[in-house]
# Entry
Amino acid sequence: MKIIGTGSALPEKEVSNDMLAGFLDTSDEWISTRTGIHTRRLLSSDNLGDLAITAAKAAIESAGVNVNDIDYIICSNVANNYVTPSLSTIIQGGLGDECSSPCMDLNGACAGFLYAIDIAEAFLATDRAKNILIVCAEEPTKFCDWHERETSVLFGDGAGAVVVTGGDNLLARRVTAKSLKDVIYYKRPLENTPYDRSSQDQKTLVMKGHDVFRMAVRSSMNDINTLLEEQHVNPDDVKYYLLHQANMRIIDSIREHLNQPVEKFPTNLQRYGNTSSASIPILIDELVRGGKIQEGDLLMLSAFGAGFVTGGALMRW
Ligand code: ACO
# Structure
């Protein structure tokens, strides 16, 4: 598998820590020192479907393929306003009538991009598809109770996309899951029926921050070390470690364990907050368009999220 095109799109509305401190008992100092986040983008007059379509079109254009060359669409999304139809079918509609590929959504939480890569690789390897569009589109700010400073300050909305095709660039991948539904969860209501009156039960995002922090560092180290050992790669030979953009202190801790310099860990969480599964493809798109990622570079991707799920990939650009 190899990535041949990238794209991303962010909402227009930029919200600073100081703006949050205007209605929450928080401060720029607390948020930036505990998380590294300074601003985030929030959907307001724009919507997630349009953001996802913009990112998808940019990825297709940079891949140099036509819309009708896309023969599968995989969308990574935790939740959006539509329970059905899937967001991937909404993206397909935005690409125009020439696109008639099968579509599927997956919920791999913040590791969704790595789960999508894993599935896409299997489809390519078995000739089920030739060019697959992966779009990670997330609006986690809409899971939060905006009276709760513990969660609402952490997230941002956004979309990142890639087009993948056959090739030898994906050297190794790894996805894991361990059912732990209490560490991060968000419950949305469904309709009651005459036989079940519990469907309206809902809960805005709950997160045990300390547990998530510890599990994130431990699981990411495990995925990265497993992939490096499997491929007999020295950590020094990796050009960039592209980690899920959740929290600067998590990234710093992983970097210190790996004993690698800060330049190898590009970040954008300062500007966008935690955009869930969109964070890594948005980061890749920015690095590619900025000329920072060059052909032949060795990249390590690693993400973790609610579930608890994790994913990692070692790839040659
Ligand atoms: N502003 C000001 N004070 C706050 C805020 C805030 N926004 N949020 C919490 N506090 C307070 C707490 O109430 C607590 O006060 P107390 O001591 O009086 O009880 C104090 O700050 C310290 O709180 P802690 O939870 O100990 O702060 P910590 O240093 O652990 O940082 C954080 C919290 C940032 C959530 C951290 O635990 C963390 O980063 N965890 C990982 C979270 C994460 O990355 N989640 C996403 C990954 S998974 C995914 O992407 C879905």
